[in-house]
Design a protein that fits this description.
The protein is mainly alpha-helical and 615 residues long. It has 23 helices and 5 strands. The protein is 72% helix and 6% strand. Helix 6 packs antiparallel against helix 7, helix 8 packs parallel to helix 10 and helix 14 packs antiparallel against helix 15.
Amino acid sequence: MILLASVPVCIGIRASDDTLGEAGPAGDSFHAVKAPPLTKREQFKIYNEKTGYYAGFAIDSVLLYGPTALALAKELREKEAERTLYHHIGVAYDFRGNYDSAFICYDKARAIDVATGDRPGEAATLSLMIFSYARQGKYVTAIDYSLEVLAIYESIEEQRNRTYINALTNLSELYRRMNSPGMAIQYLDRAAELCEELEKDIHYMLRMAHINNEYAANYLEQGNLEKALEYALKADNTEHGIINKCNTKWMLASIYLRLGESDRALQSAMESLELADILKDKVLYMDVRKVLSDIYLAQGRYPEAESEALEAWQADSTRLDESRVIALNIALANIYMHDAGKAAYYLRKYSEMNRKYSEKSFHNTVSELTIKYETEKKEMRISSLERQKILYVSINLIGVLLALALWIVFRQKIRSERKEKQLAAARAMLEGEKEERKRLARDLHDGLGGMLSLVKLGVAGEEHLQHLNGKIDLCIKELRRIAHHLTPFSLAQSGLKVALEDYCFSFSNVRFHFYGEDRRFDEQIELVVYYCVCELVNNSIKHARATGINVQLILTGEQVTLTVQDDGCGFDKSLQTQGAGLKNIADRIAIFNGKMDIITSPGNGTETNIEMSCL
C-alpha cells in the first residue's frame, strides 16, 4: 500500500480493452471510422481519451495507446495534454517496475511545469516521483520530495486541495514505514482534517479511503487490532478506486489473521487477489499471495501455503524485503510436509536473502547519510554567500578602513564555523554509519540467528530431518561472519591491533605488520582506520587482482600511520580519477586532519599511505 493517493485511478473496474465497447470515451468509432481519414487532431482526441480512460487500472492499454497520443500531442503542441500523458505513462512504467523509464517521463513532465510556471502542476509531478521512490524503498528521498510539495502549496496559500492532502497522507505513510509512528499520525490527522473540508465527491472518497487505510496500518503495526479493524472497515465501506480497494481487502486479511479469524481472513485475501489479478501489479500481487500463504500455514493447509508462496516467489523474487519472508514460508511448509531437501534449499535462500537485505539496508542508509552531508555542505556555502553580501553593504556604510577590519574578522569566523559544521556533519555521518552497523549486526544475530536455532531444535528430534542440522549450522556460521564484519567484536574488546590481525588472517594472501605502542584510541579513530584497511584490501583483491598484500600499522603517542601495499596491476593516476571508495576514505580521515598519498603506476602495484592525528 505505497502512496496510493498519488496515482490517478479510474473508479470503474474493467479487466481489458475489450470491455470498453460503446461505453468507452470514443465508442466504436475508434475501430469503425475508416473513411474519410481522421485528421491528426481527431486521432489525438481518440488516443488521448483512451489513455486517460485506462490510466491506473489497465496498464497494458495505457502503454499501447499512450505513446501514440503523446507523439500527436507534441506535434499539435498540446502542452497540458503532453504533461498529463507523461504522468499516465510514467505510472504505467512504475507498475511494471521499469523505474528508469518512469523517471524519464516525470522529468519531462516537470520540465513542462517549470517552463509554463505551473506550480500546482509541478507539485502533481513531484507526487508521482514520490510514488516511484517509495516503491523502490527510497523513503528518505521520497520524504524530501513530499516536503517540497507541501512547500509549493504553502507558498501559493492553496492547501485545501487533493494534491496537498495526498502529500500529507504520503508523508504519514513514509514515516510509518521508517518506524516513526508519532510523525505518521501527526500528518495523517492533518490530512483527515483537511479532507473533511472538501466536498463529498469521488475525490473525497478516494482520499478518505487512503487515509483510513493508513490509520488501519498504523494501528496494526502498534498491535491495536480493534482500532485497525475499525478503520479498515471504514475504508472498505467507502466507494473508491480499484487500487485502494485491493489494499483494503489485503489489510482486512492481515488483521483477521492476527485476530485468529482465518476463514474471514481467507475471504478478504481472495477478494484482494481478484483485484490484484486485474491490475497485474507485481507489488500488490506478491503482497496478497504472501498473506494467503500465511493464512494457509495458520490453517495447517501446507500444500496450499507452499503453492501461494511459490506463486509470490515467481511473481518477483527480487524484492528482498518480501521475498525473504516468502522463502521462509516455503521452507516451513516443507518442514511440516517432511520434504527435507526442499526445506533446506529455501532455508539457504532465506539466509542468503537476509544477508543481501541487511547489506542493501546498510548501503542505502550510508548513501542517504552521505547525501545529507553533501546537502549540508551546499547549504553552508549558500549561507556563507548571504553573509558576505550583508558584509559588503556594511563596508559601504561604515567606511573602507573599519569595514576592512570587520570583513577580516567576519571571514575568520565564517571559516571557523564552516569547519566546525563540516566536522560535525562528518562525525554525524560516521556515527550514523557505526550505529547502523551495530543495529544490523544485532538484528542478524538476535533475529535470524535465534530463528535458525529454533528451527534446528524443532527438527532435531526427527531422524529423517537430522541431516538438516549441518546445513542450518552453516547458515548460523555465515550469519555470525556477517555480523562480525559489520561490527568487529575484537575491535570493541581488544583494540585496533587485534582487530586488524583477525581481519588480515581471514585472507590467505594478506599479511599484517605492527610497530609502535599497542594502546587504545578514540573509538571513532579506531573505526576509521579499520574501515580504511577493509576498503583498501578489498580494492587490491577486487580491482588490482593482487596476489600479495602487506598491511602495516604504526602507532605512536600522537600519530597513526597506515600503509597498504599490493603487487597488483596498478594504474595511471594522471588518467584515472578516484572512485567512491577512495573518496570515502579521504572524507573519513579529513575529520582527524589526516592525509593520504597513493604511489602507483601500471604494472607496478599500489602503495597507499595514510597519516592521522590521534589527538
